[in-house]
Amino acid sequence: MKIWRVMELINWTADYFKKNGIQSARLDAELLLGHILNKSRLQLYMDFDRIVAKEYLARYRELIKKRVERVPIAYLTNHKEFMSLSFYVDESVLIPRPETEVLVETVLKLQSDGSQVLDLGTGSGAIVVTLAKQRADWKFVATDISPEAIAVAKKNAQRYEVAERIIFLQSDLFESFDESMKFDYIVANPPYISSNEIPTLMPEIRDYEPRIAIDGGPTGLNFIDRLVAEAPKFLTENGQLVFEFGYQQDDTVGNLIQSNPQYTDCDIIKDYAGIERVVVARVGSRGG
Fold this sequence. Notes:
Blueprint: H1 6-19, H2 25-37, H3 41-46, H4 54-68, H5 73-77, E1 80-82, E2 85-87, H6 98-109, E3 116-120, H7 126-134, E4 139-144, H8 147-159, E5 166-170, E6 183-188, H9 203-206, H10 211-214, H11 222-230, E7 235-244, H12 250-258, E8 263-270, E9 276-283
Parallel strand pairs: 3-4, 3-6, 4-5, 6-7
Antiparallel strand pairs: 1-2, 7-9, 8-9
């Protein structure tokens, strides 16, 4: 049997991935081998001449096969970094994206003492757990329609010791709430891709990420429409709704909010690529 060393294994895998149309071929090879050997990418290069034991090779081959089938790296390693925190992910939750970090950063800039925050469609819990890590005096409720997603979010909250400040509920948007429950901030990364666009997505997204987390209906706005319409009932005076939306949806989202008299103003925030990505909508005081 051939003896494989770290560097030649990375080189061979990167070449194999490239031939199979995987764009981030070398990075993926490094991440998968690092996962199997429990090494960082830097450590792999420091140990470039290390012989990879047979039992590791067998596991690595399995991951290579699944990656060629376009299973996302994050599901193969059960790991995704988000705002410098490591989150457990599996196929029951959407993989956290860098653009969603803009949503979290936006909420943190709106800080007020002892805020009550509702995270709708929490998925992996990336948003609510990161906020809870950053704001020790805030209280949170996090919901998802999927019990499997709630289990993942709880796992991540326990990992970062914030679970005692987060109430997790299985709910379809606001269905489990009555109007006596009020929040200073309601945050969400709702499904916003139109149904007819989904077949055109990369196979990693189209075939593996949960459809319920990406499919926004015929226009991509099914959940956003409900969110904008229903959120004011659950916001405190001058409370704010903060959510992510899709490419070129900024005008539609802005018009939706401006046409609702319960909102007094809204701001659109761009992501790191300069694309309009997050909206902050404020409701007025109850008196006027």
